[in-house]
Amino acid sequence: MGATGRAYRQRRAAHAAAVTGLRVLLWWLGHGLVLATRCSAALRSQITRDLTVEISADDGPGRHWDFDGQRRLVATSAGRAAAPDFAVRFSGSAHALRDLVSHDAVDAIMRDRIDGTVRVEGNHLLLMWFRGLVRKVVPIGGADPPRRALPGAYVAHDPAANGVEKITVEPAVRGLDPRWTGGWQARAKLWIVQGTNGEPLREP
Fold first, then answer.
1. What angle do CA 144, 145, 146 make, to 5 degrees?
2. pLDDT tens for each residue of 144-182
3. 57 in the Ramachandran plot: left (φ > 0), alpha (ψ -120 to 50) or beta?
4. Which of 8, 39, 61, 185 is deepest in the core (most CB within 10 A)?
5. Per-residue pLDDT for 20 more than 50?
6. Residue 80 near residue 54, CB atoms below 8 Å
7. How many CA atoms lie within 13 A of 62 on its CB side?
8. The pairing of beta strand 51-57 with beta strand 73-78
């Protein structure tokens, strides 16, 4: 009975710690994003529509963000949203913490969605968009790899290369050669060219 009681108390303590940890993390993400959008024009430029995003766990913690596309700002509140446009709902706080701080958070969430332990509601592309915003505030997860030149770049002529040794560069022109009948016939089939030039379009 003593060992069972200790194990039970340990499980309760671990659960309480996970709930508290998730509340702190969501508070940090929530208010950090609000502050960052007020200070960063680059972040505001990514807010282009009105929508509500929610992250929550079934054992209590939750937070949602209300994005204002017209003012390009965001507000946040604790708890679940009444009708979120996009929501990630975890089965528990410990699970949420594990996925959210993972170096591949998006992949972890989508894997767990397939397993049925995470519910993702709404357009899944919003998950990547929201993670991109959050990572500019709190560097959670793996950092993007540094940009570098690809190895083996063709920067100088190599006589041993197996490609075409001569590249012909044609002079720039503003219109098709009137003698190029095949080009004009192909042009006549491009509705986007006709429409932008104000030419009449045939019925579809």
1. 115
2. 667 777 777 666 766 676 666 677 778 888 888 889 899
3. beta
4. 61
5. yes
6. yes
7. 18
8. unpaired
Amino acid letter, residue 172: A
Q: Which two tokens stand for residue 181?
A: 């009948």
The tokens describing 166, both together, are 């001569």
Distance (Å, rounded) from C-alpha 170 to C-alpha 193? 22
Lookup: tokens for 56: 């929550």
Quote the CA–CA distance of 99 and 74 in Å, as a whole number: 24
Question: Chain centroid to CA 30: how far?
Answer: 17
According to DSSP, the β-strands at 73-78 and 86-90 are: unpaired
- Report H helices in the chain: 2-39, 41-44, 93-100, 105-115, 125-135, 181-187, 191-196
The closest alpha carbon to 16, from 61, 70, 80, belongs to 61
CA-CA distance, 114 to 108, in Å (whole number)?
10
